[in-house]
## 1
Amino acid sequence: MITRSLCMLILYVLYVDFSVRAHEDRVPAASSFAESLPEFTLRAPDDVEHTRKDFIGKGVVMICTAPTVAHGEDQREWVERLKKGGWNKDGPALVLLEDMTQSWFKGKAIERMKEEYKPGEAPLLLLDHKAELRKALEGRRKNALLDKTVVLVFNCEGELVYIETKAPEKADMEKLCDAIQRLCVSPLDQLPPLQK
């Protein structure tokens, strides 16, 4: 009886250890990302061009994602949770960055985005056709954002101050919303850049 219980305990510990390591391998570390918002020029579905300069002085909450069915659910959930939580239209920009290289049906995805996109309403949708901004945001670790939905928060100077890699329902919304709220206050009260 004791031997069976001991074997079960060992198997359970090994399972938990393996599960934690497998999860850690999929979740990028803070050092995986660029320290600041890179220079970029991207277009929204209405063909309006946007650059890094649009967000300096304002801050940005950027949901980095792919136009796939699985990520679409996370996108909608993130936008809904952020609008209910710490984001408001007078604060930092709320941006949905779509890495179009991850779409199997790029033409259909763009067509649908053009139909559903509402210029002037949050979130601002930016189409990253060649994954240039996604790759620049990844910093030193290639593919840290590939096939993931990650929320990056940049302060008014364009410095990365918060990263959320968990799914919306598992995210620490209180910490995320606090980071967003602190973007809307004086520079002395803002979060410092993330330390690597």
## 2
Amino acid sequence: MKKIIVLFAVVFALSTMAMAQLGTDVYVGYNLGIKTITADGSDVTITKEASTSNTSFIDLGLLVDYEIADGFSIGGGVGGAIPVSGNIGYVRTAGATPTSMGYAIDGIIGVDYTYPLEPVMLKANLIGGVSFMDMSHMGYMVKAKFGVGYDIGAFTVSVGAGYELRNYSIASSEAGGKAGNVMFNSIPIELGLTIRF
């Protein structure tokens, strides 16, 4: 039964790719921090900058997608974020020096819907996936955004905003220690470029 399901999935994926239109979505933006929530573990302490309680990011991403139906695309890619204000620090062992968050790397999948009003387009995106903070703490990210684009032949330039959630678990370096947790809530304001081949 497993072989049949795997075979069906492969045939479905190949037929979808053969009949679909290949595209690339690139986005870059500023994520305005609206709420950063932290929970300390048994040996994990998470601190915030004194100037603000919310973390803001510069984020970017690249998705390679397939148009599976008129206006609908699905795809996968990579993304990332770098904190620019309100950064957090974390200590994994009591008494150690805090480590500041440096960056996050994301492995993402996305669903995109575009409604054409020629040459203007209304766009809606849902993106999510696994995320690694400083390549050592695993978590996830989810983003929903809405925007307006302008169609220039095979290119669409768009601007949009929405909501993004990032959640990470910070493991204790002590055996059996309880992990800490940090959750970033932000409003992404992004500029995007879609290229259809």
